[in-house]
Amino acid sequence: MIWVVRRPEAAQGFVLLTKRWKVERTFGWFNRYRRLSKDYEVLPETSEALIYLAMIRIMVRRLA
């Protein structure tokens, strides 16, 4: 299920949007990996596998 997170109409200045920062942080982690920072892969399955590998590496490093 997908939720659209929108900025409140009455807000002024910086407003922290719920859950959006988690997605942006994860994309930032992916940019540390050269093959994920650009779209080099032809097949989407290959890109998906590399994302899994990157997340496994990130999670293992956090556990160690």
* Subunit organisation of the chains: single chain
* Main beta sheet: none
Helix-strand makeup class: mainly alpha
Q: Rg, please? A: 16 Å
**Mean model confidence by pLDDT:** 84
Low-confidence stretches: none
Strand content: under 5%
What is the count of helical runs?
3
- Give the beta-strand count: 0
Helix content: 40-55%
Order of helices and strands: HHH
So what's the overall shape? elongated
Our measurement of the CA-to-CA distance between the termini, rounded to an integer number of angstroms, reads 33 Å
Structural features, described:
The protein has a domain at 37-64. Helices cover 55% and strands 0% of the residues. The protein is mainly α and 64 residues long.
Summary keywords:
elongated, 64 residues, 0% strand, mainly alpha
Could you give the topology of this structure?
Blueprint: H1 20-30, H2 34-37, H3 44-63
In short:
The chain is mainly α and 64 residues long. It has helices spanning 20-30, 34-37, 44-63.
